[in-house]
């Protein structure tokens, strides 16, 4: 993956992230100095943060749908609960 060649023979989608990270590692004193670039590179490869965010959004949408459905059921049970 770090070779620079993508699946189509052109530059890989994460190659620029790899180059930034690699350059940082070659000139830094401590590997932790490059942790953000490493994180960017791994996110490009695996999309784990993106998937986590999508899952949180999906779960929240489902929660809101369940809440709305419950409110509709409660509101349609005779309607005599108003003061």
Brief sketch in words of this structure:
The protein has 83 residues and is mainly alpha-helical.
**Pattern of helices and strands:** HHH
Shape category: elongated
What's the main sheet like? none
The Cα radius of gyration reads 24 Å
Give the helix proportion (percent range): 55-70%
How far apart the termini lie comes to 67 Å
Low-confidence stretches: none
Number of DSSP E strands: 0
Please, what is the average pLDDT?
88
Quote the beta fraction. Answer: under 5%
Describe this structure in words.
InterPro entries: NADH_UbQ_OxRdtase_FeS-su5. One of its GO terms (biological process) is mitochondrial respiratory chain complex I assembly. It is found in: Mitochondrion inner membrane; Mitochondrion intermembrane space. Keywords: Disulfide bond, Electron transport, Membrane, Mitochondrion, Mitochondrion inner membrane, Respiratory chain, Transport. One of its GO terms (cellular component) is mitochondrial inner membrane. With 83 residues, this protein is mostly helical. It contains three helices and no strands. The mean pLDDT is 88.
């Amino acid at each position: 993956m770090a070779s620079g060649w993508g699946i189509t023979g052109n530059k890989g989608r994460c190659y620029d992230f790899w180059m930034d990270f690699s350059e940082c590692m070659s000139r830094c004193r401590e590997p932790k100095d490059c942790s953000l670039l490493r994180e960017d590179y791994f996110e490009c490869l695996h999309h784990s943060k993106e998937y986590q965010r999508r899952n949180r959004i999906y779960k929240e949408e489902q929660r809101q749908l369940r809440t709305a459905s419950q409110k509709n059921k409660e509101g349609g049970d005779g309607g005599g609960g108003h003061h």
